[in-house]
C-alpha cells in the first residue's frame, strides 16, 4: 500500500520539479541565445560602419582581411554584399555555402537591403539545427549600397545549453530522490498497521474470531483504530462463546431430565390396557421424547463442532478411505447403489469438525430422505479464477468441488434456500426422523473454511420425471508439501 502512496507522491514531486525547472531551463536557453544574438549584432554593426567608409573611399583591402580573419577565428562567414546579392568583401566561398544551407538568408538579406535591421532567424531550441543569420544595411543617409551578413552555426551554443539543462535536471532530481528516501519508510510505517488490520479482517471473515490487530505500531490514529477493533472483537468473541456455551450447557442439562422423563413414560407401558387410546398416546409420547433427544444431541454436536473454527488441509483420498466402506454398507442395507468417482491427489481445506462429518451428513440425507436407487459421489478440481481479488483465497488458489447426488425425490427450487436454514424440514419429510439441523450446520462449517455448500439438481430419475437432489461442497485447494506422498485412488 505504501507503493500506492508513493505512486501519488512521486508524480507530484515530478510536477513540482518540472514547474520549477522548465521555466529555469527556458530562461537559460533564451539568455544564451540572446547573448549570442547581441554579439552578432555588435559584430555586423561594426563591420557595416567600416564597410561604409571603405566603400566610399575605395580602400577595401583592410576590411576584406579583417572579415577573413573573423571567419578563420570564429568559423562564422561574414561578408559584405551589394544590392544584387554579390559578395564584395569577405570569404565568398564559405558565405555562399552557408547561405545555400540556410533558407532564411534571402528573406533577411532582402530586409537589410531595404534598410531594415533583421530579426533573429530560426528557432532557438537546442534540438533545432538552423543557423543564426544577422544582416545590417550599409549606406549613407537613406541610400543603401549593400549589407553585412553573418551566418552563425549554433551547434556549440546549443550544446552548452543542453549541458546546462542536464545540470539543472540533475539538481532537480536531488529533492525527488530525497522525497522518495523519506516517503518510503514513512509510508511503510504508516500503512503497515493498515495491512495488518486488513489481514486480520480477512481472517475474521473466514471465521477466526481469535485474531487481533497490533495496537502498538503506527500513528496514534491507527493505534486507536486497532485498539477499538480489538475491543469490538473481544465483545464479539465473548458473545459467540456465551451463545455456544448456552446451547451446549442447555442441551446437556436437559438431557438428564429428558432421559428420566422417557424412562418414566416407558415404565407406563405394562399398565396400559390392550384396548383403548392409551397405547396410541403412549407411542406418540415416546416418539416425541426420542425426537427431543435427537434435537438435543444435534444442538450439542453443533456447539462442539462450531467451537473449532480453524480449517486445516487434508487429502480427500484419506477422508474417503475411512468412509467409503461404511457408506457402501449403509446403501446396500437400504437397497441402494453407491457410486464413487473421485480423482486421486486432491488436497483441500477441510471445514471445522472434519470433512468426513459433513460428507456423512450428506450421504445420510440421501439415504433417509430421497427414496433414491443410486447415490453418486464425485469430485473435481476447478482452476483459479484469473480475476480473483488478492484477498479472495478461494478463487485465487482454485476450488475442489465435491458433489453428493441421488436420483430420488429431490427438493423444489423454491425450497432449496430454506433447506439451509436451521430446523427447516420439507413437508414431505415430517414423518421421517431428523432435526432439520444437518444441512444448516454443514453450510456453516463449510463457509467457515472459506467454501460454499449449495443445492442443485441431482441425477435423472429412472422414470424420467425429473431430477433428484444434489448437495455440492466447494472448498479451497490446499497447497501440497513438496515431500507429500501421492494418495491412491478410491
Walk me through what this model shows.
With 490 residues, the chain is α+β, with helices and mostly antiparallel strands. It has helices spanning 2-57, 61-74, 92-101, 105-113, 155-205, 220-266, 278-306, 316-321, 324-333, 355-369, 393-397, 413-419, 438-448, and strands at 78-82, 87-89, 132-140, 143-152, 312-315, 337-341, 347-350, 374-382, 399-406, 452-460, 467-476. 26% of the residues are buried. It has three domains: 1-159, PAS domain (Beta-Lactamase, 2-Layer Sandwich), CATH 3.30.450.20; 209-308, Signal transduction histidine kinase, dimerisation/phosphotransfer (DHp) domain (Helix Hairpins), CATH 1.10.287; 310-476, Heat Shock Protein 90 (2-Layer Sandwich), CATH 3.30.565. It is rod-shaped and about 160 Å long. The strands form three sheets. A five-stranded mixed β-sheet has the order 6-8-9-11-10. Strand 10 and strand 11 form a beta hairpin.
Care to give the gist of this entry?
The protein has helices spanning 2-57, 61-74, 92-101, 105-113, 155-205, 220-266, 278-306, 316-321, 324-333, 355-369, 393-397, 413-419, 438-448, and strands at residues 78-82, 87-89, 132-140, 143-152, 312-315, 337-341, 347-350, 374-382, 399-406, 452-460, 467-476. The chain is an alpha+beta fold. Keywords: Kinase, Membrane, Phosphoprotein, Transferase, Transmembrane, Transmembrane helix, Two-component regulatory system.
Amino acid at each position: 500500500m505504501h507503493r500506492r502512496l508513493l505512486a501519488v507522491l512521486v508524480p507530484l514531486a515530478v510536477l513540482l520539479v518540472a514547474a520549477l525547472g522548465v521555466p529555469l531551463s527556458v530562461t537559460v536557453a533564451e539568455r544564451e541565445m540572446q547573448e549570442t544574438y547581441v554579439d552578432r549584432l555588435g559584430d555586423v554593426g561594426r563591420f557595416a560602419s567600416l564597410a561604409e567608409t571603405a566603400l566610399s573611399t575605395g580602400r577595401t583591402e583592410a576590411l576584406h582581411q579583417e572579415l577573413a580573419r573573423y571567419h578563420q577565428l570564429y568559423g562564422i562567414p561574414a561578408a559584405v554584399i551589394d544590392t544584387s546579392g554579390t559578395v564584395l568583401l569577405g570569404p565568398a566561398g564559405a558565405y555562399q555555402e552557408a547561405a545555400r544551407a540556410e533558407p532564411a538568408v534571402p528573406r533577411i538579406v532582402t530586409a537589410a537591403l531595404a534598410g531594415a535591421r533583421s530579426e533573429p532567424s530560426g528557432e532557438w531550441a537546442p534540438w533545432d539545427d538552423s543557423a543564426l543569420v544577422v544582416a545590417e544595411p550599409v549606406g549613407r543617409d537613406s541610400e543603401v549600397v549593400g549589407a553585412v551578413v553573418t551566418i552563425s552555426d549554433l551547434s556549440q551554443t546549443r550544446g552548452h545549453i543542453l549541458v546546462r539543462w542536464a545540470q539543472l535536471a540533475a539538481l532537480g532530481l536531488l529533492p525527488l530522490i530525497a522525497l522518495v528516501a523519506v516517503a518510503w519508510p514513512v509510508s511503510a510505517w504508516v500503512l503497515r498497521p493498515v495491512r495488518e488490520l486488513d489481514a486480520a479482517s480477512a481472517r475474521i471473515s473466514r471465521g477466526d474470531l481469535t485474531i487481533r490487530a497490533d495496537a502498538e505500531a503506527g500513528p496514534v490514529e491507527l493505534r486507536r483504530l486497532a485498539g477499538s477493533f480489538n475491543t469490538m472483537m473481544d465483545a464479539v468473541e465473548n458473545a459467540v462463546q456465551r451463545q455456544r456455551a448456552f446451547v451446549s450447557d442447555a442441551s446437556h442439562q436437559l438431557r438428564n431430565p429428558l432421559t428420566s422423563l422417557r424412562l418414566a413414560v416407558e415404565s407406563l407401558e405394562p399398565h396400559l390396557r390392550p384396548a383403548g387410546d392409551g397405547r396410541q398416546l403412549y407411542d406418540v409420547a415416546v416418539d416425541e421424547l426420542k425426537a427431543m433427544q435427537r434435537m438435543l444431541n444435534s444442538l450439542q454436536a453443533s456447539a462442539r463442532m462450531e467451537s473449532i473454527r480453524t480449517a486445516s488441509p487434508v487429502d480427500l483420498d484419506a477422508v474417503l478411505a475411512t468412509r467409503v466402506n461404511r457408506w457402501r454398507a449403509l446403501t446396500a442395507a437400504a437397497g441402494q447403489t453407491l457410486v464413487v468417482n473421485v480423482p486421486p491427489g486432491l488436497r483441500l481445506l477441510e471445514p471445522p469438525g472434519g470433512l468426513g462429518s459433513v460428507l456423512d451428513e450428506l450421504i445420510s440425507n440421501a439415504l433417509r430422505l430421497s427414496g433414491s436407487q443410486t447415490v453418486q459421489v464425485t469430485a473435481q478440481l476447478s482452476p483459479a479464477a484469473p480475476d480473483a481479488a488478492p484477498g479472495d483465497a478461494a478463487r485465487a488458489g482454485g476450488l475442489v468441488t465435491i458433489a453428493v447426488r441421488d436420483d430420488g425425490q429431490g427438493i423444489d427450487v423454491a425450497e432449496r434456500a430454506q433447506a439451509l436454514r436451521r430446523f427447516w424440514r420439507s413437508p414431505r419429510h415430517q414423518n421421517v426422523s431428523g432435526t432439520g439441523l444437518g444441512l444448516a450446520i454443514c453450510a456453516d462449517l463449510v463457509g467457515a473454511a472459506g467454501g460454499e455448500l449449495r443445492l442443485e439438481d441431482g441425477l435423472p430419475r429412472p422414470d424420467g420425471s425429473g431430477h433428484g437432489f444434489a448437495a455440492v461442497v466447494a472448498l479451497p485447494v490446499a497447497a501440497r508439501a513438496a515431500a507429500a506422498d501421492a494418495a491412491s485412488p478410491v
